[in-house]
Every structure is written in C-alpha cells, then in structure tokens.
Amino acid sequence: MEKRLLLIVNPAAGRGAYKYNFAEAMHVLSKGGFRTTLAFTAGRGDATRFAAAAGEYDTVACIGGDGTLSEVLAGLMTLPSPPPVGYMPMGTANDVATTLGLPKNDALSAAWRMLDGTPHPYDVGGFGDKEYFAYVAAFGAFTEVSYTTPQDQKKLLGHLAYVLQGMQTLGKIETVQTRVTYDGGVFEGKLLYGSMSNSTSVAGIIHLSDKMVSLGDGVSELVLVKDPVNVAGFTEVLDSVLSQRFDSENLLILHTTQAHFEFEKPVAWTRDGEAGGSYADITLRNYPCPVQLIF
Questions:
Q1: Nearest to 49 by CA among 58, 65, 36, 62
Q2: For the residues of 131-171, what is the DSSP string, one character each?
Q3: CA distance 140 to 184
Q4: 176 shares its domain with 257
Q5: Both 202 and 101 in a single domain?
Q6: Which domain holds residue 144?
Q7: How far apart are CA 67 and CA 72, in angstroms?
Q8: 260 partner at 20 to 30 Å CA-CA among 8, 124, 153, 205?
Q9: What radius of gyration, in Å, describes the C-alpha atoms of the chain?
Q10: What percentage of the chain exceeds 70 in pLDDT?
C-alpha cells in the first residue's frame, strides 16, 4: 500500500551534501512504497510551518541538521496526532544522529534506514510556554559556539570549526548566579554551564553515557557545572566529562521532568544549536513521547 511522505529539505544544511545522491534516495523511497511530496525551506521557521500542515501524511521526514529537525518537531507538536518522523541528517554536529546511530550526510543510506527502521517514542523538550527543542536547551560555556562560528568555517572545517571556536571562548567564560528548581530538589549557586537534554551527545563536546539516557522515558537529563573557581578546577571538570567518568564534585547530572531557572539578569540560551533568546526566568519541561522517530 502506497504511503504519503512529506519530505522537508533544508538545502543549506551539510554544505548541500544531500544533492550528491538525492535522486538515488528518492528512488529507494519510491520503491519502498512512499509517494513523496517535497518541501524546500528558504529560511528559519519554514520547516515548522510545513510540518504543522502535515496532518494528512503517513510520514514526515526532513533532510537537514538538528536545527531543521527541531523546527519539524515544533510544527508536529501543534497536531493532535502527528505522523512518525524520519530524519536524514545533513549538518555539522548532528547530535541527534549520533544518539540514534543514523548515517550522516548520506541521503541514500538514510533513505534505506527509513525503510528498515522502526518508529520509537521520543520525548520533546518544552522551552517556556510555546517553544520546543528536540534534544537540548543550554546556557553558559561553549553554548554560543554553534551559532557564533562563522558559516564559511563550518563549511570548510566541519566539526573542527566548533572545537576551534570553543577554544577561543575560554578566555571569556563567565559564571552566572543561578537558582534551579527540579524534581525533588533545588540548586542555588554559580554555574559555568547548565542544560536540559534528551541526547547522549551535546554540541559534539559533551557525551553522556548510553546508560544515563533513555529517549522515551518521560525524563530529561539536567546537567549543571558549578563554578570551578580556577583553571585547575575547569580542567578537572573537562576531564571528568570527556572521560565519561562524571565524577567531578563540580558536575551534577540529574534526571527530571522539569527545571525552573532563575537568574539575576537575562542569560542567553541556545536551543538545538540555535540562538534561543535571553531570559532571567524560564521553565523547561519534558513532554513524554508526543512523537515517534524512525530509526
């Protein structure tokens, strides 16, 4: 039986890599029983608008980076019964693809995975009252890297561009006085970094253990990095994260359904690698399994 597929394409993602085997990927989807309608984005918000009008499709898929997937999920959250979502990753960091084990920057392999994969329940993050994120909302050290790295560097250097830009921010990292209320507890103090996520990979820099993360359990991971005071303390936190020991006294990893952040002044956030605005008071929450991702 033929199935209707809406394929949302971000032609700017992944250095335009989708076009190299796009025709072959479309052929695979057609042979697999999909009648595909293409929708190309031209700017921010287009993927959300396309997905919000996709209620009559059997499946929605997107070709793009994590930001494109984030927009698609935001659109699907407006539907009473959203169709399953396929992800064909084309981007630089591709944290969601890393978590799901999806092929990156290869439309043909991603098309085969869509056919062979299974829809899995997937939690979506809520940012304030009306906005969403696919896998992470964060503030503090390195969180600006993904949207301050010049586009020409991203195209030329790929993931290395993020690392180099992150190193450049070391000299201007600041801590922020924060009060965080989460399930069963409150933290109050200076933080170097804070995030709420549903992913094993964040910005290609922080990697959580597979044992810590379940994508459809209705619970998100709250990561708080306290003020390390000095360079030695910062190095110790970084080593704890990179080695996946997570044993630093300055590192808290908690599991929660919601987190309310209060700051002395507005703090800049990122959502799924894009600028998320500045807030002095914001609540993040986990929406348990409103969508299904195919992997």
A1: 62
A2: EEESSEEEEETTTTHHHHS-HHHHHHHTHHHHHHHHHHTGG
A3: 24
A4: yes
A5: no
A6: 131-288
A7: 9
A8: 205
A9: 19
A10: 86
Closest CA to 263 of 279, 278, 277, 280: 280
Q: How far is CA 59 from CA 43, 242, 283, 293, in A?
A: 23, 37, 31, 10
Residue 134 has pLDDT above 70, yes or no: yes
Domain check: are 109 and 10 in the same one?
A: yes
Collapsing DSSP states into helix, strand and coil, what is residue 20? helix
Q: How far is CA 97 from the centre of its chain?
A: 9
Q: Which of 97-101, 186-190, 233-237, 267-271 has maximum average pLDDT?
A: 186-190
Q: What's the pLDDT score for residue 237?
A: 73
Residue 209 token pair: 């253990």
Are residue 135 and residue 267 in the same domain, yes or no? yes
Question: Is the separation of the CB atoms in 67 and 136 below 8 Å?
Answer: no
Within this chain, do residues 109 and 159 fall inside the same structural domain, yes or no? no
Domain limit, last residue, from 61, 95, 117: 117
- How many CB atoms are located within 10 Å of the residue 32 CB? 14
Q: Please write the tens of the pLDDT for every residue from 206-239.
A: 778 888 899 999 999 999 989 877 767 767 776 7
**pTM score:** 0.87
Q: What is the pLDDT of residues 69-78, one digit of tens each?
A: 999 999 999 9
